[in-house]
Structures are given as C-alpha cells and as structure tokens.
Design brief:
The chain is α+β, with helices and mostly antiparallel strands. It folds into three domains: 3-102, Arc Repressor Mutant, subunit A, CATH 1.10.10.10; 108-148; 153-220. The protein has helices at 32-35, 46-69, 76-85, 90-102, 108-122, 127-136, 141-148, 153-168, 173-186, 191-220; strands spanning 3-10, 17-22, 25-31, 43-44. It is rod-shaped and about 85 Å long.
C-alpha cells in the first residue's frame, strides 16, 4: 500500500476529516488536524500508513467515547464496554482509554464521588447498594472504599425514609410500615438503620391521620 500522496481532500460530509490519495487512488481517511502534517508529493511507507491509520482509529474511538461521556460521567469500564459494543478492537479501546485518562477526561475516583453525591441528592441509597452499583460499573474496590469511607448512612437513610413516607402516607399503618421497610431495604439500608426510622415515620403518620380524623369530626359538629 506504500505510495506517494497525490491529493488531500476534505470529505464532503465531514469537513473535519480528509481523504488521503496515494498514486491517484483513495487510500484512507484522517482527521483534518492530523492531515495538516502531510503534503502532496510526500512518500509514505507501509509503516507510516499503519501508524497513521492506528492513530486515526484511536482518535475516532476517543470521539465516540467523548460522545458517550457527554450525557453523564462514566467509569473506565463503562467506556470500554461501550466501545466494544461498537466493535472497536481491544487494542484501540485500551489506547483510547489511556489517552482519555491522561487528559483527565476519565477518572474512576471522580466518577465514584459523582455517583455517590448524585444518589444522595436525587435517590438516596445505603452504602451496601452504592458499593454494589459502583462494583457493577467496574470501579475498583479500593476506590469504592475510599469514596464511602466518610459516607453518612444515617443521613442518607433519613432522606430516603422521608421520601418513602410521603409516598406511602395514605396507607393504613400496618401497610405503611411493611412497605416503607421494603422500600428502605431495596435501597441497601441495614436493618439497624431502618427500624428506628420506620418507627419514627409511622408515629408521624399516625399523628397526621389522627389530626385528619379530628378535623373531620369538628367539621361535622
């Protein structure tokens, strides 16, 4: 495939890429930034072409990964899985992940912190559930332990209990307690944390129900 560059032309559908022609025949495409270093009349050996094509494959894998990252932060393992689903070769996947990690665009410690903070804010979980979720996303156990070292389980549990109690407040007290316990258990909280919170929430609901009954009786008098 070695030859001499006879033309460098921007692609019609993507002006960020350039088609490289060797001996008047289309040979391969490159990013415009990489193609700047080439010139018409330049001779390319097989090794030169292989290096350029490998660079381009890594570049395209990085672009795919950055698009995947644009929706939310991801772990390294999530990015690897996504690229492999797109049939990217393992060697290219690893090169792309390494490049993104060096640029600090992939960072499992920061991702794990983001995940825990996001859960705490929008959908509180217990440490057990968070440990499982992060493990499923391929985060190393040492990083998970570091992120959860100062995790406030009781604060997270209270947020979850209050949210669950609001949803279940219309139920009879027996159903309320049973369903709130299930709600908390599914979110990874321990029995020791769940029991006192369910008791506290059920007492508040009982008082609210009693207040509603008294209000109705007063209205009927």
């Amino acid at each position: 495939m070695a030859g001499t560059i006879t033309a460098l032309r921007f692609q019609k559908r993507n002006q960020d890429r350039v088609n490289v022609y060797l001996d008047d025949q289309f040979a391969f495409g490159l990013t415009a930034i990489k193609a700047v270093a080439l010139r018409v009349g330049q001779a390319l050996s097989d090794d030169d072409i292989a290096r350029l094509q490998e660079y381009d494959q890594v570049e395209r894998a990085c672009e795919r990964a950055l698009n995947f990252l644009s929706y939310r932060p991801r772990s390294e393992a999530e990015v690897r899985r996504n690229l492999r689903r797109k049939k990217v070769d393992d060697e290219i996947v690893e090169a792309a992940v390494e490049r993104l990690t060096r640029a600090d665009l992939l960072n499992d410690l920061e991702f794990a912190r983001y995940w825990v903070e996001n859960r705490l804010q929008f959908n509180p979980r217990g440490a057990r559930a968070l440990r499982y979720e992060l493990g499923q996303k391929g985060v190393a156990a040492s990083i998970i332990a570091q992120v959860l070292e100062d995790f406030d389980e009781e604060s997270s549990a209270r947020q979850a209990a209050e949210a669950g109690a609001r949803r279940l407040a219309h139920l009879e007290i027996g159903d309320f307690c049973r369903k709130l316990k299930g709600y908390m258990t599914r979110r990874g909280f321990s029995y020791a944390v769940i029991e006192p919170l369910v008791a506290e929430m059920s007492e508040a609901v009982c008082c609210e129900h009693l207040s509603d009954v008294e209000s109705e009786e007063n209205d009927n008098d």
